[in-house]
Amino acid sequence: MNHFEIDWDPKASVGKKKDLLAKLHNAKWTLDSLLIVIQALKDPSEQVRKSALDSLMNFAFLDPEPVYVSPVRLLMFFFLTFFKTSGPKLAIFNLLLKLHTDEADHYLELLLNDQFGECTDDEYEQFLEILSKAERPDIVSRINLSELPKEKRLIIQRLFKPSQVKGPDTIQ
Predict the structure, then answer these.
(1) Which residue among 1, 83, 159, 165 has its CA within the 20 to 30 Å range from the CA of 65?
(2) Nearest Cα to 79, choosing from 43, 127, 33?
(3) What CA–CA distance (Å, rounded) separates 156 from 168?
(4) SS3 annotation, the chain
């Protein structure tokens, strides 16, 4: 299996896109290959999306050198890549809360400290409401007020006591 650099051209014809995806079947998979397939999964053409899905299945099940990706990383990958609506994001957030693993807790901390910048204020408020009912003070204590924009700090102030989070106890 050969490794080669390939670039995804979203303006290419459906045929060229499908040809490129077909080449991935015989290539050594890399993160770049996976990113190309992900871009193809978002393509407006159903034919291209189907080819991308076929390539992804080939990668996942037929590659003699499988690449292990933890389920938590995969969840975060989908959270950051595909889900642009609140419903799936909330479901993943809730699932991460229930996992109680170091890796899941790490990603929760990053999300709650707005390190990805992927959440609207409304989504952030919904995350915090879920968190306030989840009885996870260990996660609440990881929120660092000094790293958050004012709007998000105000949401936290409304839902949690100052002693529950890091940072100044007053919102400036």
Answers:
(1) 83
(2) 127
(3) 12
(4) CECCCCCCCCCCCHHHHHHHHHHHCCECCCHHHHHHHHHHHCCCCHHHHHHHHHHHHHHHHCCCCCCCCCHHHHHHHHHHHCCCCHHHHHHHHHHHHHHCCHHHHHHHHHHHCCCCCCCCHHHHHHHHHHHHHCCCHHHHCCCEHHHCCHHHHHHHHHHCCHHHCECCCCCC
Which residue pairs, CB below 8 angstroms and at least 24 apart, start in 43-46?
43/10, 43/17, 45/14, 45/17
* Whole-prediction pTM: 0.58
Note whether 139 and 169 are within 8 A (CB): no
Q: What are phi and psi of 10, to 5 degrees?
A: -65, -15
- At 136-150, the pLDDT tens digits run 889 999 998 888 899
Please tell me the predicted confidence (pLDDT) of residue 171.
45
Contacts (Cβ under 8 Å, ≥6 apart) of 140: 131, 132, 160, 164, 165
